[in-house]
Design a protein that fits this description.
The protein is mainly beta and 372 residues long. 8% of the residues lie in helices and 30% in strands. It contains 5 helices and 24 strands. The strands form 7 sheets. Strands 3, 8, 10, 11, 12 and 13 form a 6-stranded antiparallel beta sheet that branches. The longest helix has 9 residues. The two termini are 27 Å apart.
Length: 372
């Protein structure tokens, strides 16, 4: 069985990736099934991860076809997933789901690596967190391998209580606009605003609960029949087509019209770079070439634990967003010692790094997590 083509984004370049067949939810001929896959959790314990989110599905005209409330008692483990069956609402028939709303189900932050949808007819769609990362969502590296090439999509954070410096409570997404074709890849690479700049297509929300609703395109956008690209790119940004059938307690039409897509790419982050009290006691060491400590440290929107890339031989202090080398036979001062998981002092005055003049941070971890 062939895998499913999905859009990915690597170092700002949109491309195509093949998702393994077992990464999509199974077919249920009676109702759609949504898979939410977690990249990691915000908790120090390996057994406690993100709360199961709330799901609302919409048809092409923005009508709710089914919903499931979030459940803070159910969690999604690190690198694991949950399949959420979404029963059709009474009287709506069996319309295909096109739009999806995902809201955090509890105070335990969840980092979503991908979302996949299987319709009752057996057709499937999937979306990687990479796209949201490119659009300014808060993100971190992910353990999850999704393709036969061991591709590991980034995960994006949703949280309920705003702890850990995490801004967003949920997201809205039009699956059909992320159809994985070479032409769509080219269109998004030519103009990233087509991917990030319209609220009905994709948006992160700072305030979202189960009883909120998201906008849709009305009338629906015209897509080229073969390439599934925008026939009229300008129509994507026509706010008179950004429609809401119902306003929720937090998401209002006026707020949605403030786009493009939360202005995330255009607004400099003023959030403190913190990740809760556990930040000082956990460090992640990855041997995967997909995981760059340099990329994490240089990103304004990355959030998560301190990180070491064995491939790059670099340590990222996520609180200061500062890079330090990993110690080796010739580098023994002002570097990160993998054996002790500590920073070594510099050779300069009062332990300063003789090159930069900076004082290496005091780092003492109770737990070192190894990723491959």
């Amino acid at each position: 069985m062939a895998g499913l083509l999905v859009l990915d984004v690597i170092q700002g370049i949109v491309s195509l990736s093949t998702m393994l067949p077992n990464r999509t939810p199974p077919v249920d001929e009676h109702q759609p099934v949504v898979r939410i896959a977690a990249g990691l959790s915000s908790q120090e314990s390996d057994t406690t991860s993100g709360s199961q989110p709330g799901i609302r599905l919409y048809d092409i005209m923005g009508r709710t076809i089914g919903s499931v409330k979030g459940n803070k008692k159910n969690t999604i483990g690190d690198g694991s997933f949950v399949d959420i069956s979404v029963p059709f609402d009474k009287g709506v028939g069996r319309k295909p789901a096109e739009y999806i709303q995902v809201s955090n189900g509890g105070t335990d932050a969840l980092c979503i690596a991908y979302i996949a949808l299987t319709q009752p007819d057996g057709s499937s769609k999937a979306w990687y967190g990479d796209s949201a990362k490119e659009c300014g969502a808060q993100w971190y590296h992910s353990l999850l391998k999704t393709g036969d090439d061991d591709y590991q999509p980034s995960c994006i954070w949703i949280d309920r209580d705003g702890s850990n410096g995490l801004r967003f409570q949920g997201l809205g997404l039009h699956f059909n606009d992320f159809a994985a074709t070479p032409e769509r890849v080219a269109q998004f690479n030519d103009n990233k605003d087509l991917m990030c700049g319209a609220a009905p297509r994709f948006r992160m929300y700072e305030n979202m609960e189960d009883n909120d609703y998201i906008p849709f395109f009305n009338p629906p956008l015209d897509l080229e029949p073969e390439s599934l690209t925008d026939a009229d790119p300008g129509a994507v940004f026509n706010k008179t087509r950004w429609t809401m059938r119902q306003e929720g307690p937090h998401i209002k039409k006026a707020l949605v019209d403030q786009g493009p897509s939360m202005g995330m790419k255009r607004r400099q982050s003023t959030d403190p770079v913190v990740f809760g009290p556990a930040n000082a006691s956990v460090v992640i060491v990855s041997t995967s070439p997909n995981h760059s400590a340099k990329e994490l440290c240089e990103s304004e929107t990355s959030r998560g634990f301190d990180f070491v890339s064995s491939t790059e031989q670099i340590f990222c202090d996520m609180k200061a967003k500062k890079l330090w080398p990993v110690c080796n036979a010739t580098m023994k001062s002002a570097c990160f010692d993998l054996k002790s998981s500590t920073m070594t002092p510099g050779k300069g005055l009062r332990g300063r790094d003789s090159g930069s003049g900076l004082v290496p941070p005091a780092k003492h971890y109770s737990k070192t997590v190894h990723w491959e």
